[in-house]
Amino acid sequence: MSGDARGITSHRIPGQLGGKTIGLWALANTAAGLLIGAGILVFAKGEAINASLVPMSVIYANVVGFTALVTVRFVLPRWSGLPAYIRVPLALATLLGGSVLGSGLAMIINPLLLLYQVRLAIMVMTVNGVLALVVGALTYAHDRLREQIENESAARAGLEREMEVARDIQMGLLPKTFPNIPGLDLFAFTVPARHVGGDCYDVIELGDGKLAITIGDVAGKGPPAAILMATVQAAVRALSESGVPAGSLIEKVNSLVYRSTEDSGFITFFYCVLDTKTGHVRYVNAGHNPPCVLRADGRKEYLECGGVVIGIMPGMKYEEGEMTLGPGDDLVLYTDGITEATNPRDEMYGEERLEEVLAAHCRASAREIEERVYSSVKDFTEGAAQADDLTMVVVKMVRESVEERSLPHEESPREAKGGPSAARGAPATGDLRGPAKAATLMTPHDT
Predict the structure, then answer these.
(1) Which of 8-17, 199-208, 255-264 has the lowest mean pLDDT?
(2) Model-level pTM greater than 0.70?
(3) In this predicted structure, what is the pLDDT of residue 435?
């Protein structure tokens, strides 16, 4: 778009004035004219010849008022491209021209005023002349403020649309379906604190019954964090599918992030490869919240082996850990947005509450566990604004095959969903199951 076109757009000429606007403006001008005329009449000590001052003042005020309105709405925008030293004098001349016209119309009511009350006539012209300039300045300021508000509203609407597009792109990078593997129950969700977030998870099928499962959290929120996480996610997928071992994979990702971010940028990340046939897991924890393993007998283990967060130092080495999931064991991955969620009293949800919920519903399905956790967090925060992204992945090694288990809830299909305020894994309501009261719902798996 050319510079001229931009100038015309930023100083658009409003359309015709509505009847309501004209009526209200005339009423305001009339009131101002009555007050001014009455004040001058009192100053003139009630002489009979001055009785026409009030209607004269009303006429003058309306002429001046509409002169100011027309000047600001229609004349000034046409002069917007002129230099200020030309535009301002022209504006003043227009307003003063309206004042002279108003004076002429006002004097028709009592022409003798010029002959017998020259002092009052000059006073009327002076007072209303100043009024014309004040009204013009106020009207101009009001219109500029209104135009600024409209432009800002349009800019915000455009930004909202762009953020929605960014959110859709980010959600498109998350798994659209979860693998349907006998003996494995898997579900995940992420709910950004903003339109786009810095959390992500992924489930990558590597073939031969193996799955790469990841979860990560970028320092920061919003588009920069989302862009960095998308880059990391793409790199992890490519390296995973090429068969790079877990430790080497994280080392390569660390180098990539270090080269592409500033000193303050870093990512906590957990990466593991699960052999669904044997339950064997090889993993690397790069400074992330240690995932919790809930054994079928009630024991808890935490996966801490690995190294420092990704992106703060080049050439870092990461140690691989390993363990085996047996029938009835759960592997729970989550970000600190869950454990660090706060209520209005600045109390944190904490790991103990999370462990209590996980232990209480360990026999539920993967999705049902996440519903319990999500609703528990929402109940705890008591409506406080979500300060960080919430992300969780639950992997269950079930005692029987998926086909032998009772069918899941109709609102809990194995296919991940998206919503206006939630990411893949949460339904369109923005909650895992609407209100936080979902925690009271019971299923056959809880008994």
Answers:
(1) 8-17
(2) no
(3) 29
In sequence order, which residues have a C-beta less than 8 Å from that of residue 64 and are 6 or more positions away?
A: 29, 95, 98, 99, 102, 128, 131, 132, 135
User: Within 13 Å of residue 123, how many CA atoms lie on the same side as its CB?
Assistant: 14
Residues of the chain with CATH 3.60.40.10: 174-446
Cα separation, 276 vs 163, whole angstroms: 38
Q: Closest by alpha carbon to 335, among 396, 302, 288, 372? A: 288
Distances (CA, A) of 51 to 48, 67, 124: 5, 26, 14
For residue 337, how many C-alpha atoms fall within 13 Å in the half-sphere facing its CB? 31
Looking at domain 174-446, what is its CATH homologous superfamily? Answer: PPM-type phosphatase domain (3.60.40.10)
Cβ proximity of 44 and 50 under 8 Å:
yes
Taking the C-alpha atoms of residue 100 and residue 80, their distance in angstroms, rounded to an integer, is 25
Distance CA 117, CA 111 (A): 10
Give kind and range of the element (H or E) at residue 129: helix 118-172
At 167, the pLDDT band (50, 70, 90 cuts) reads low
Phi, psi dihedrals of residue 371, rounded to the nearest 5°: -65, -40
Tell me the CB-side half-sphere exposure of residue 227, using CA atoms within 13 A. Answer: 7
Report d(CA 239, CA 248) in Å as an integer.
9
CA-CA distance, 305 to 283, in Å (whole number)?
Answer: 8
Q: What residues form DSSP beta bridges with 307? A: 286
Q: Report the DSSP pairing between strands 390-397 and 184-191.
A: antiparallel
Residue 230 CA to residue 169 CA, distance in Å, equals 9
Question: Taking all residues of the chain, what is their mean pLDDT, rounded to a whole number?
Answer: 75
Please give the distance of CA 313 from its chain centroid, rounded to a whole number. Answer: 32
Q: How many residues does the chain have?
A: 447
Cα 263 to Cα 278: distance, rounded to the nearest angstrom: 41
Spatial contact of 175 and 212, defined as CB atoms under 8 Å apart: no
The torsion defined by the Cα of 429, 431, 432 and 438, in degrees rounded to 10, comes to: -110
CA angle 368, 371, 374 (to 5 degrees): 150
Continuous H helices in 173-245: 223-241
Write out pLDDT tens, residues 399-441.
654 333 333 444 433 333 333 223 333 433 343 333 233 333 3
- The helix or strand, by DSSP H or E, that contains position 356, with its residue range, turns out to be helix 350-360
DSSP state of 73: I
The candidate with the shortest Cα–Cα distance to 445, out of 339, 360, 387, is 360
How far is Cα 331 from Cα 184, in angstroms, rounded to an integer?
11
Alpha-carbon Rg for the chain in angstroms: 36
